[in-house]
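User: Please run a holo structure prediction.
Assistant: Happy to. Please share the sequence and the ligand.
User: Here you go; the ligand is zinc ion.
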Amino acid sequence: MSLPSASVFVRCSCGHLHWGRYGAAGLLLVDPARGVLLQRRAWWVHHGRTWALPGGAIEAGETAVGAATREAFEEASVPAEAFRAVSASVVDHGDWSYTTVLALADGAEARVANTESAEVRWVDPDDVPGYPLHRDFAAAWPDLRDRVGRELVLVVDAANVVGSRPDGWWRDRHGAAERLRDRLAKLAEAGVPDPDDATVTWWPRIILVVEGQAKRVTSAAGVEVVAADTDGDSKIVEVVAQQTASVLVATADRELKRRVEALGASILGPGTLRRQLDEL
Ligand SMILES: [Zn+2]
């Protein structure tokens, strides 16, 4: 049995027609040197001739990131290897939703690749409101603008997080830190919810700070492991101080919390982090 086609209009309780049975997704590609990638829609598509993002209907069984990535290639010839997803936000109408995936471009080339797109252009974020924008993109832009160029770094106090659950970790501290690293690698792929905004997900860079018997744990895909020679807390403070992105520190250590908060970092409780890891 084939699944119903995603490519239909949905009559939404908001009073509008929207494209995509399973919702829709778009890619907001950010290149620090060139701006954001906008696409002018062909005259014959819904809201033709307006400027918006490459994007379209989410197919059955596809993730929003998968759909945004596929559409960016189909419409603007941007390959998946040319960018890294950093955050996503969902506008949920109940009957339909739209996910905007913000990604950092790494020298991506874009060009018109199919007939749904009339032109693609890198635009300075400050100039975006001056374009004739698609209604929904115009409404979403002020919130998106706030996240353009922003990244999240999650710094994990390995000893503190491992020690937060009495599961026998003291018998094998190295193994326990390795298991934490492997679960964090899955989290790096799945993303973490924004602590202040439930509609936003981040795909953070994750830095795991290890010490003592866990010192020889190595980095893995999505998780950079940093070893402290002597004092783990000072290493964490040093790592936090090096970051230019927003930083979230996973620890319950009161004194460490005070030190990293003084540097502008936010705190993620080990219990909250472990619940997120348990859900993966
Ligand atoms: Zn709607």
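The mean pLDDT is 92.
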